[in-house]
Amino acid sequence: MVRIVTGKMNSRKTQRMQMLYENHPSGDGFVALKMMLKDKVHSYQALRLSTGEKFPLVVRDEFVYESFPIGCQIGPYLFNQKTIDFIQKEMLELIKNKVQPLFLDEVGLLEIEGKCFDPIVRKMIDSRLDVYFSIREDLIEPFVKKYGVEKYEILTE
Fold first, then answer.
1. Residue 78 exposed, middle or buried by CB count within 10 Å (0-12, 13-18, 19+)
2. pLDDT digits (tens, 9 = 90+) for 68-119
3. Is 106 exposed, middle or buried (0-12, 13-18, 19+ CB in 10 A)?
4. In terms of pTM, does the model score above 0.70?
5. What are the chain's domains?
């Protein structure tokens, strides 16, 4: 079953995903933790739910450093290709081992455009395992259409 945690920007979707994971500790996946610098988003770290490990996922363009391997970009946000590859590899392994539920936070416009985590989102849906995605409410319709999701549950705050 596809479950979509939704809300507007800054509506605590990530925290909701973490709480849902805590209720299903047999599952696994990744959420994106926002790092602030005063009142500005500096970066996001990918948090592996089962281990607590953190990986550099996104950095705002004005804070990017020379060795940051840029995989894709939306607005001022640059995504780390090494972390994208790692997350996709780990999620494939979880799918192969039929771990569920699976969690993937911050699915959005990049995936709808066929970029970033698009391949693993498709594999998660095709697996027919229980999956949770956090998606802004204004992107649910394009997400459902792109991935051909017929049955899904919406979870709001």
1. buried
2. 999 999 999 999 999 999 999 999 999 999 999 999 999 999 999 999 999 9
3. buried
4. yes
5. 2-155 (3.40.50.300)
